[in-house]
Every structure is written in C-alpha cells, then in structure tokens.
Amino acid sequence: MTYPLIIFIGLIALGLVLAFVWRFAARRYTLPCPVWLRWLVELDNPFTVTNRAGAIIEHLELQPDMKVLDIGCGPSRLTIPIAVRVGPQGEVTAVDIQPGMLRRVREKAQAANLNNIQFLQLGAGEGKLARDLLDRALLVSGLGEIPDRAAAPNEVFEVLKPGGMLSVTEVIFDPHFQSRETVLRFAGTAGFREKNFFGNRFAFTLNLEKPER
After folding, report:
1. Nearest alpha-carbon partner for 208 in 72, 53, 59, 74
2. pTM (2 decimals)?
C-alpha cells in the first residue's frame, strides 16, 4: 500500500469519526454549522438531487411579488436565487442566529444589486418573528438545529397567510437530520397539513400547507 493511499484512507476514516461525533453531540446540544464552514454549506450536495438549490426552489412554486422567509439561511445558497425569482416587488427575509452568516448574505446581495432582502439575527421558535402574512417559508437542514423544535412550526404557522406553505428539506448526511415522521409530527401539531413530498426517506423535501380555513 502506497503512502498517499494510506493518507487518503486515513483522512476518510477521520472524516467518518468526526461525522459520528458531530451527529452524537448534535442530539444533545444546539450546534449550528460554524461560520468558517460556510463554503461547504454553499455547495450543492453531489450525492442527492433533493438538496440542490434549484430543486428546492422549484418545489416552492414561487411567483413574482411573493414574500418568503428563509429560516437558517446560512451563507445564502437559497436566499439570493429566491430574491431574484420573486423580483424587486417581492421580499425575502433572511433569518440566522449567526451574524457571520448574515454578513455573507449581505455581501452577496450587494454584489448582485438586490434590495429586496431583510436580515434578522434570531432563531425560529423564539416568538420574535413579525406576523407579516408571508407566502412561503423554508427550512433547509435546519429543524434539528433549533433548540425549541416544538415552538418553531407554531411560530412559522402564525406568520404565514392562509394557503401559505412551509417547505422543509432534510438530508441524511446532515448531523441534525430529522425524519419525515418527525417533521410531520411537529408540523401537524402546529396545524400544517402535508401538500407535497419529493425524494425518499433519506433525502426529501416536504411541503406543508397552512389551510385556507
């Protein structure tokens, strides 16, 4: 066995160990993705179509002038293209608990000359979101990072207009992965009902609708 191959195998083994430790710790503590790893979050996962930005955005059924809430926006993998899609009369609210992530979104928005993005440093479930009657909300690999997962769907339910939609994307590679059953349980308690399901049990987007009445 050559020396480079040994190093390569060692790096893979180290990565698997770190992933296991992170997953275990994430079940006990709130561990959002570190800002210094934002470059990794900005990339589409090459192993699944479901988690790619284009697929998530298509499933949102966006229209011009819509108001969208991006919860746990991170470094704006979705915020920027959604802001472009809803147009200058639409609005995207980028929410994250880490100021470093929001700075990255602001830099990208300025570079793209976008003025329809608001920035909020807070966490879902804290009861601080304004009731703006939004059209869409999305939560991509973020439900497991929220300390009060039971409160978050209730708060999002309140800020959406009747007929509005919450889109939740989960991928097994994420250490905070939540199953479809778990998402449905939290969402159903808040009053959401399932609208669409895309993907499979290991990588999926689940669209949840706030009933008209």
Report:
1. 59
2. 0.80
What is the rounded distance in angstroms from the CA atom of residue 155 to the CA atom of residue 143? 13
Cβ-based neighbour number of residue 19 at 10 Å: 12
Cβ neighbours around 146 below 10 Å, total: 24
Residues 142-188: pLDDT tens digits?
888 888 888 899 999 999 999 999 999 999 888 889 999 999 999 99
Contact 30, 22 (CB under 8 A): no
| CA–CA distance, 172 with 44 (Å, rounded to integer) | 14
* Structure tokens, 76: 């704006």
pLDDT digits (tens, 9 = 90+) for 175-194: 889 999 999 999 999 999 99
The first and second tokens of residue 191, run together, are 């009053």
Identify each DSSP E strand in the chain by its residue range.
67-71, 91-96, 117-121, 134-140, 160-171, 193-200, 203-209
Spatial strand order of the sheet with 193-200 comes to: 117-121, 91-96, 67-71, 134-140, 160-171, 203-209, 193-200
In angstroms, rounded to a whole number, what is the distance separating the alpha carbons of residues 165 and 97? 22
Distance CA 26, CA 30 (A): 6
The single-letter DSSP state of residue 116 is: -
Nearest to 78 by CA among 117, 48, 132, 115: 117
